[in-house]
Write a structure and sequence with these properties.
The structure holds 3 protein chains of 3 kinds.
Chain A lengths: L1 E4 L2 H4 L4 H11 L5 E4 L8 H7 L1 H17 L4 E3 L3 H16 L1 H10 L9 E3 L1 H7 L1 H7 L8 E4 L22 H8 L3 E2 L13 H4 L1 H17 L4 E4 L2 H8 L2 H4 L9 E3 H9 L3 H4 L9 H4 L16
Helix pairs in contact in A: 2-14, 3-4, 4-5, 4-6, 5-6, 7-9, 8-9
Chain B lengths: L3 E6 L11 H9 L4 E7 L5 H14 L3 E6 L2 H14 L7 E5 L1 H5 L5 H20 L7 E4 L3 E5 L3 H12 L3 E5 L14 E2 L4 E2 H14 L3 E4 L2 E9 L2 E8 L15 H4 L5 E2 L8 E2 L2 E2 L11 E2 L5 H8 L8 H5 L12 E7 L1 E4 L3 E3 L24 E3 H8 L20 E8 L15 H15 L4 E6 L9 H10 L4 E4 L4 E5 L2 E8 L4 E7 L1 E6 L1 E3 L3 H8 L26 E3 L9 H19 L3 E4 L4 E3 L9 H5 L5 E7 L5 E8 L9 H5 L5 E3 L4 H12 L1
Parallel strand pairs in B: 1-2, 1-3, 3-4, 6-7, 6-18, 7-10, 18-29, 20-27, 21-22, 21-27, 22-23
Antiparallel strand pairs in B: 5-30, 8-9, 11-12, 12-17, 13-14, 15-16, 19-28, 24-25, 25-26, 31-34, 32-33
Helix pairs in contact in B: 1-5, 2-3, 5-18, 6-7, 6-15, 11-12, 12-13
Chain C lengths: L2 H7 L6 H9 L11 H5 L10 H9 L3 H6 L11 H5 L6 H11 L6 H17 L4 H12 L8 H7 L13 H19 L1
Classes of the chains: A alpha/beta, B alpha/beta, C mainly alpha.
Chain lengths: 296, 673, 188
């Protein structure tokens, strides 16, 4: 299936692993990711916190590009980008006034026909394919699925799963052979864009998330948002007390890639700040599985 | 030539200040057909009415027009005055020159002109009025009460004590409703079953009450005074005449772990069971869905599986072959007393409602609702009245109560207040304190609604004497950490976020109409609102009647209410029913529709538009008995006189008596002159 | 001029609640102060004004008190409040709308962050993270914060050294300009 691909600014930089791991597993899932030509930033938190029209217009430009390039759906792996693109689509559809304003500000035609999808829902749809493509099942690996905020809220915009008790990530995790744990902080905010501007808040919130994952006996936390990953990974040292064990923070696509037998280097695991080798060590190769194919 | 008398009322200053009544009388007196015209200060007074009677007598009037207030006020008064002098009351009409003229205008000359016009066209109408006779239809002096909860029980007893027969239909195996599930009732803390069961027994033993338990209304036809109701007697699998209520059969039943409906899912029952020890009737019923015998039969297994209860029964009362049976009852009035169900926070909801994912969608075992708490507190409940929590049977030392779960929550689909929760939550904190002396109850609320007699004092007692901690704020989320429940809350009065720990959480969930109420309402032609609550005829002044004549309401099926209000409403309903039954014949205003069979072509558009089902089919046959045509005929007992058929009929063959096309066009033409 | 006309043309007589309802479409006056939003707010421990306080001040026309308080800038837009509000009042959206009214009053680090971020996007079409970090440090004077992170990010290939402007960067700049102009028009 061909789908427009919107990596967003962070997937080319601080969250390169997310991009790398998605591309590494796409082939096995019959997903052809076609990067939108000349895409621009969605505006993220800064646009919607300061200029509402800008926060709709910037994503709208990218949706219009996807339309012009012949796509009917776009995959935005970054949860923030996903949320901005989906919110823009939703608002333009719901408000003729906003549609008009956006039309005036954009210089290209925009029919608002493109569906916006995130990595979790796209992977969930392919759970059966994931299961059959698993070469090294992650048996015994306990994983805490962390959704954060922007994948599931607001519920009207992100309608792919239940906003209070979602199950999509757990379904994907189960398909890899790993065991999703039951824990309480799945939907709590990590501190989002405050990593630079108010680091102390991120540390406070992150501590609670890590503590709860530990309480649930998780070996790793799996995320689908570059901000969450960055906050919990890059800033984790500040959250740990002396002697507390580190908690690897993986992207969902990295986890799937590991189960597929893709080399860690191809998945970008080496770029993490918190060592992920404890997870890699748990891989149990199945004797009968064919050698994992190298992805082009 | 008509001989009409015209009377213009000053109504003190109400009309007289703005309209020149003398001038109106004088002008009208000059109209052809008007033989008497006068104005007077207060037409509705005794002397005023005497003027009418005198004029009828002296001038042989054949029509009377009183220009005064709204007909809603005094039409009956003046018509009675005419009737007392032998003039058919429907030859008397009123022109409203008060609400429609003097009360809304200021310009004296123009108001007077308008008053003259208003009066004039009524005079023209009267010239075409026909004398009409009150319609009388016979009344069957029996009532059907649907629902055997406290409201249905009260209505049935009051009607039966009033001398009329009652058929009480209850869908559960026993009467008693939700009140029988309660532990104690506010504000007196009376034991609920202790005050209810005597009434239940009274119903059972009352010579005027025919109790049909485990039964449902299947079909309703007819009209006020003359309903025919088909009732389904569901198969208990027990012959009620043989069963003596000895209680032996549940003891030998091999299927034991069915969640008990009476215990709100917290206790277990057997497949053959009596719902609770004080059930009326005290006859068991077999749950065929879970019974081993019936399950095997359903699977097609030839060999008879399990018959332990049948073997055990010394009276041979168990009958596996029993099937649903039907009876038809003729009644004159129907009382709907179907009560309520509680909203659940589950994920699976009917259209228009949402559950509470933030509270766990009902998957956390120690998060229960108010009815379940009642069962825990009740001496006949699954824990024998000990306060033990469902997950591990431990005694909770900290219980948190949440008010307004579902209620007052537009996002979840219920915008209304359920009225009883503030009171029963206070009651729950007191019951808890009485059982667990070192327990701490916390209540999260938005407001406290305690408007009944002794209610405010009751809530204050919970707070000031029984140690309940009341915090104003709605809880954002409930989750479980090990053995402890955690609630993310906020005290809006002190402005502090709170993370509260609890061993058990009790949710005060919204009151909703019973499932299936829409289907029942449609059988009765009773209207209901978007939430399934049945509609009263007038929210202020006619709370126990519906817009369908002969169908009445009692209790929570109309809107959330507590026991005292349900009982009061049931007694009010009974009074209405007994009032209906007090006459041999039911009198109805004759301003109903009538079809001229000579003109009717039998298209039945009128039947399609009639909201009351008043149009019937009538065969017109020749002398030899051959069918000529089928025409419409209006049942005068059901017709409400709305006139829709008259407006719809393409052949002008149906008209409202007293409001014929001729009369109405006469009024219009009078204005056009 | 009828009162309806005056209401339509003269927004200065509009109450704050109506203004916010008009801008955001959310029913500010439906808030009955239940506090559920504040109960679930992850920043409640750090803010003076919690979401329900913001709604209260909005409903009682106290714009200056709202803009003078740094609390509205501490909102994470996690949308927990809006997703649970029983009256669908959307406090998150209301807070965004208030922020829009007063970027110049934001706490320095947060204003600096947003300005730096959007500055990068306007210049390059995409957010160039190294540029963001440098601009942010210059604006806030926090020159040594996370000093070791830079090299760590670089060695992990997480930071590009050179910005890369997209082909359509002129178009993006025009979008920024058009939105700024539309914003000025709305205020006039």
């Amino acid at each position: 299936m061909r789908i427009a691909y919107y990596p967003g600014c962070s997937l080319h930089a601080t969250s390169r692993e997310f991009d790398e791991s998605l591309r590494a597993i796409a082939g096995r899932l019959e997903l052809e990711l076609v990067e939108i030509d000349d895409w621009s930033c969605c505006g993220a938190t800064s646009a919607h916190a300061t200029d509402h029209l800008l926060s709709v217009a910037l994503p709208a430009r990218n949706l219009a590009l996807a339309e012009a390039q012949g796509h009917d759906a776009v995959l935005a792996p970054c949860a923030a980008c996903y949320n901005r693109l989906a919110s823009a689509r939703h608002e333009v559809a719901a408000s003729p006034e906003m549609a008009e304003q956006v039309a005036r500000v954009l210089e290209r035609p925009f029919g608002n026909r493109v569906q916006v999808r995130n990595a979790v829902e796209v992977l969930r749809e392919r759970a059966a394919a994931i299961k059959s493509a698993v070469a090294t099942p992650l048996t015994g690996l306990k994983v805490a699925c962390y959704y954060g905020c922007l994948l599931v809220r607001p519920p009207d915009v992100c309608a792919f799963d239940d906003p209070e008790q979602p199950t999509s990530m757990e379904e994907v995790v189960r398909a890899t052979g790993a065991e999703p744990v039951v824990w309480n902080r799945r939907l709590d905010c990590c501190g989002g864009a405050f990593s630079l501007a108010r680091t102390a808040s991120v540390v406070r919130l992150g501590r609670e998330i890590l503590a709860d994952a530990r309480r649930a006996d998780a070996n790793a936390i799996v995320v689908a948002c570059p901000m969450c990953q960055s906050n919990l990974d890059f800033r984790q040292r500040a959250m740990l007390e002396r002697g507390e064990e580190q908690m690897p923070i993986l992207f969902l696509s990295e986890l799937v890639g590991l189960a597929f037998g893709v080399a860690s280097s191809a998945l970008g695991l080496g770029r993490h700040f918190i060592d992920t080798s404890s997870v890699v060590r748990r891989l149990t190769p199945t004797p009968t599985a064919a050698a994992p194919k190298e992805v082009a | 030539m008509a001989r009409i008398g015209v009377f213009i009322c000053h109504c003190g200053e109400n009309i007289g200040r703005t309209v020149n009544c003398a001038e109106v009388a004088e002008t009208l007196g000059t109209l052809p057909g008007v033989v008497h015209a006068q104005d007077y200060k207060y037409m509705c007074s005794d002397p005023g009415q005497a003027l009418i009677r005198q004029a009828i007598n002296e001038k042989q009037l054949d029509g009377v027009m009183v220009a005064a207030c709204s007909p809603h006020m005094h039409e009956k008064t003046f018509r009675r005055a005419c009737a007392s002098e032998g003039l058919n009351p429907f030859l008397c009409e009123m022109a409203n020159i008060r609400e429609h003229c003097s009360w809304i205008h200021e310009h004296r000359e123009r108001a007077t002109e308008k008053a003259i016009d208003l009066a004039r066209f009524i005079v023209e109408k009267i010239k075409r009025n026909q004398p009409l006779e009150t319609i009388r239809i016979p009344v069957t002096r029996r009532a059907l009460v649907i629902g055997g909860g406290i409201a249905g029980i009260q209505a049935a007893l009051d009607i039966a004590d009033g001398g009329a027969e009652v058929v009480l239909v209850e869908k559960e195996p026993s009467i008693g409703g939700h009140m029988s599930q309660l532990s104690e009732t506010f504000p007196t803390l009376d034991c609920s079953q202790c005050i209810l069961t005597p009434r239940m027994v009274e119903v059972y033993q009352h010579p005027n009450i025919k109790l049909m338990s485990y039964s449902e209304v299947e079909e309703v036809s007819g009209y006020i005074g003359n309903f025919s109701v088909k009732i389904r007697r569901k198969a208990r699998s027990i012959n009620e005449d043989l069963c003596n209520g000895c209680g032996a059969c549940p003891k030998v039943c091999i299927v034991k772990k069915i969640p008990s409906e009476f215990d709100a899912g917290l206790g277990k029952r057997t497949a053959i069971y009596v719902p609770f020890p004080q059930a009326v009737p005290n006859t068991p019923v077999i749950d065929r869905v879970n019974c081993a015998h019936f399950k095997a039969k359903a699977k097609g297994i030839k060999k008879e599986a399990c018959g332990k209860c049948k073997e055990e029964c010394s009276r041979g009362a168990i009958d596996f072959e029993q099937v649903d049976s039907f009876v038809t009852e003729k009644v004159g009035a129907i009382v709907v007393a179907t009560g309520f169900q509680l909203y659940t926070i589950d994920k699976d909801q009917p259209e228009g409602l949402a559950g509470y994912g933030e509270y766990g969608y009902g998957t956390i075992p120690d998060v229960i609702d108010g009815l379940q708490f009642e069962r825990l507190a009740s001496a006949s409940g699954p824990t024998g009245g000990k306060m033990l929590r469902p997950s591990d049977g431990k005694e909770p030392k900290r219980i948190v109560f949440l008010q307004c779960v579902g209620s007052r929550d537009r996002a979840k689909g219920i915008e209304y207040c359920s009225k009883i929760c503030c009171m029963y939550v206070a009651k729950h904190t007191m019951l808890y304190r009485h059982k667990v002396h070192d327990g701490q109850a916390t209540v999260f609320y938005m407001d406290i609604r305690a408007g009944g007699k002794g209610y405010e004092e009751f809530v204050r007692r919970a707070i000031e004497e029984d140690g309940a901690r009341y915090v104003r704020g709605r809880v954002s989320r409930i989750y479980r950490e090990g053995e402890v429940l955690k609630l993310q809350a906020f005290d809006t009065l002190s402005g502090e976020p709170m993370l509260v720990e609890a061993d058990m959480v009790v949710l005060a969930t919204a009151m909703r109409a019973q499932p299936g109420i829409e289907q029942l309402a449609q059988k009765l032609s009773a209207s209901y609102d978007g939430h399934g609550f049945l509609n009263e005829a007038h929210p202020k002044l006619r709370p126990v009647e519906t817009n369908t004549a002969g169908v009445y309401l009692a209790g929570a099926c109309q809107s959330p209410r507590d026991i005292p209000d349900s009982v009061a409403m049931a007694s009010a309903t009974a009074a209405k029913v007994l009032g209906l039954f007090s006459k041999e014949m039911l009198e109805r205003e004759p301003t109903v529709a009538r079809v001229d069979p000579a003109l009717c072509t039998g298209c039945f558009h009128c039947e399609r538009v009639c909201a009351y089902g008043a149009v019937e089919h009538k065969e017109i046959r020749d002398r030899k008995g051959n069918l000529i045509k089928v025409v419409a005929e209006v049942n005068a007992g059901v017709c409400q006189g709305c006139g829709t058929c008259q407006a719809t009929c393409p052949s002008k063959s149906v008209e409202l008596q007293g409001f014929t096309d001729e009369q109405i066009f006469a009024e219009i033409n009078a204005l056009a002159v | 001029m009828t009162s309806a006309e005056s209401h339509a043309t003269n927004h200065h007589h509009e109450t704050l609640a109506h203004r916010l309802e008009r801008i955001t479409g959310s029913p500010v006056l439906a808030c009955y102060q239940c506090g559920k939003c504040s109960a679930g707010c992850p920043m409640a421990a750090e803010t003076q004004l919690r979401p329900h306080d913001v709604m209260r001040l909005a409903a009682t026309d106290r714009l200056d008190d709202l803009l003078a308080n740094e609390s509205i800038w501490l909102c994470l837009t996690c949308e927990t409040c809006s997703s649970r509000c029983p009256n669908r009042c959307d406090p998150a959206r209301v807070i965004d709308a208030l922020r829009e009214l007063a970027l110049e009053r934001a706490p320095r680090p947060i204003a600096a962050f947003h300005r730096s971020f959007l500055g990068q996007v306007e210049r390059n079409g995409r957010m160039f993270e190294l540029g963001l970090i440098l601009q942010y440090k210059l604006r806030t004077g926090e020159l040594f914060k996370d000093a070791t992170a830079g090299p760590a990010m670089l060695t992990r290939g997480k930071l590009k050294l050179v910005p890369h402007a997209i082909g359509g960067v002129a178009e993006v700049r025009r979008i920024f300009a058009a939105c700024r102009a539309a914003g000025k028009e709305a205020e006039a």
